[in-house]
Records
---
Amino acid sequence: YDCHGIGRFGSRLRIVLERGVILLEDMGNLVANELYDSEGAGQDAAQAILRGVERLHRQGSHLIVVSNEVFRGGADYAGDTDAYLLALARVNNALAAKAENVCRVVCGIPKFMKGGNGFDRA
């Protein structure tokens, strides 16, 4: 698999490939890297990440993306945290719209928001 297909920061992400299944962990770090690193996509971070995820998805039979929940921690953030949360929300929303399954896990308990395809639902 080409971990650099996910953007300039692919080598910093945890990507696991097993039997055609790709696990992409920590979308929050990827968004921060693309937004704030001098070599990142800056304001175009969400679009750049979505293009990279699409390229990565074509390399396996299944893609599992792990991300952070946004906008649950309050409403008044310091600095440009709002820009980070908005970019992460854009990525999460776009990926969820295309995904077959969307699962929220709280305290280790999964709740499928979309799909499920035979998995136990909480």
---
Amino acid sequence: MLLPLAACVLAANGSLCYGQTGGNALGAAEKAYVLSRFCTEVKYNFAYYNKLAFDFDSLCMASLPSLAATSSDDDFLKAMQALCARLDDGHTYIYAANTPGKQDEWVRPFPMETKRIGGRVFVTRVYSSFLEAQGVCEKCEILEIDGEKVLDYGNRHVRPYLSSSTPQWADYAPFGSFGLTKDKGTKVSRITFRSPGGKVFTVESSRNLSWDMQESRQAIRFRTLGGNIGLLSVSSFQDFDFSRTYFDKLWGGILETDALVIDIRDNGGGNSSHADYLMSHFSNRPVRLGAWDSPMYIAAHASWHYPPERYMQTPVPLRPASGKEIYLKPVVLLVNATTFSSAENFCVAFKGARRGKIIGTPTGGSTGNPISIDLGYGIGCCICTKHELDADGNEFVGVGIRPDIVVEEDADLFVQGRDNVVEKAVEYLKTQMK
């Protein structure tokens, strides 16, 4: 679909780009072009286009006047993100493909990671000596940002522009990782914290702080708990995080345990082949994987008025790791609302192998191999291209993978340095070891 106003800019040379001036570099015609490109790409690539409960073309057309009239490039980008969020898909989103000329204006978070537990938000890691000197540390609770209660702030300033497939992802993702405090580097904010000891204090700063505490932390961590139960935590399947070599070095110690907890809570995904590699160590039989399908377009078929076509595939079963001893003792898997993407593919394989119980809360409910597309004028998008099912043919995208044993993380115990979900997993495994 091409919107009428976009026709006048099809031959534009792209000399203007979003964020180039920090003001309103894009005119109505350029904005219409970006909208038109996005709507067209969604129509041909979005795996769930045929399941939309509304007419997306009509929505785009109705949105054109307000998008073209946005007062700044930033407002246009946010409006496009809000429009994209109407697709209700965590792997379909709009982003700025370039950065402003002034480095101080680049969008960045405060140098700390955060996490929502229940109705509270905590710091989980600090990367700045400035913040540390002010008293910010792991397990500090964030109470307010710029005079707004932290949940109100996230729901007002982050959530409306977040692409999401499920309510649980929309509830928790705005407060996870680095997403909560992202804004222009020069933007000064006041953040009120409460220390683990109960002291309330406020830090005021721009976001242009030095990240001078970036000690390395492995995405794969392993330790042995009481009763010779192992805890294997995998926080990412990204290529730059997940080291198969490092995992192989840990494998001997893992094999020595009598039972194992695999923790992929807050794992946002990455490369699903790493998830498969991990899973291949925990079943001595081929593991069933979920089938998938994707939109398919053949121009000649369209000229003959064929109905929309889809490519379908059932992957071959995942084979056990070659030349390795396979772990066949009791295992449980921990998940939560920000277990996402290829981490959910790991859940699918784990369930398909009938390998053990899943403990925690429903996962983020989104995967699908997005395609990246340059929409022009410094704006890009990713669009989900795969509709995936679990190994039993059930939908989990838009739903989440439901645990066998539901356990919500306890904020009070977190401040004390305890993890009630791990404790529940250990309690369960002890019953399986008898």
---
Amino acid sequence: MSDDFLNWIDEGTIAFPEGEGPQPLAQFYVNQIKPYYRAPHLCIGFPARYVDHGLTTSTELLPEWKLREKRMTVTPRYGTAVTDSVYITSRDGRNFRQSNDVFLPPGLRTKHNWSYGDNYIAWHVVETKSTKDDAPHELSLYATESYFTGRQSRLRRYSLRLDGFASIHARLHKGEFTTRPITFSGKELSLNVATSAAGSVLVEIRSPDGTPIPGFTLADGDIIYGDSLDRRISWKNNRSVESLIGQPVVLRFVMREADVYSLVFE
């Protein structure tokens, strides 16, 4: 860290659990770590992931093979290395978790991708208007492509829903999960949630020992379906959770064909 680019403080290295983060075959570059503006207590980042499988039978099937051969006369990795981007999060800026799946894959073959230097996400996310008529705002990300083709590279815009970096996902067969104990100060529970037409979500509030709290049980819960950034949850048409403010609770979600992206007590 530096305030003047002359005097520097070594803040140490960031850490990942075993099996996450940079690996021998997958190095991280330009981590792009920054507090998320909608939840400043969370740091998020989009490292570019550098992978070099070497010269294999697949290398010759990647786009622009003749151009790759020319690049390899400078150094082999200019023709064999490929890059994509992943998603990492932290609450303290030092200890990070990596999402299970690639965040921005190279995509279908074109002359502009599957090269070293592609899919580097530019400085973080930007909230923008949606291109759809009455849709809410979305997040835009800008990533490099065509790094080694032509005389200049370029940025392509990608978009996702607000807070839509990752989700708890349920398929057709019903699934469920519970949160860690939560202490909150808001009066209503809001979900960023999306379901299919046949999908649904039910929420139960429990005490930390797992006992359902009367009035907030699964049987009391009103069924949730649809697609919303701010779906207020209710139990027998009651949305108020004010009686539980300040006491630890656990949320149980029972889901089918649904994604829960985030939750907040408002």
---
Amino acid sequence: QAIRILRDAVRPLMAQGADTLVLACTHYPLVIPAITEIAGPRVQVIDPSPAIARQTARLLDERGLRATDDRQGQVTFLTSGDPARLRGMALMLIGEVGKARQATWDSSGSTLSFTG
């Protein structure tokens, strides 16, 4: 099913002559090989997640929040879906165990709340 979803998303872009795809979601790097196969060898696929990780590290360092040997961090996953399912997927896909919480925007879209 994931391949069908990717084809439905990528093929119209290719039909319009796209030569570069910039990934813009946290889980897309997991399917880069499939996206590359669907898009073809002439299409450049750009994954900005390494740059986002570097910026996150800079901000953590700037604010003194990076985990150290004497101050370990913890992993919390946020999802708009089922937290239990995300915990299982995170363990399977990236080998991480952590707390998962459900994130919900209020009706105005201005306030994010968490449960779990």
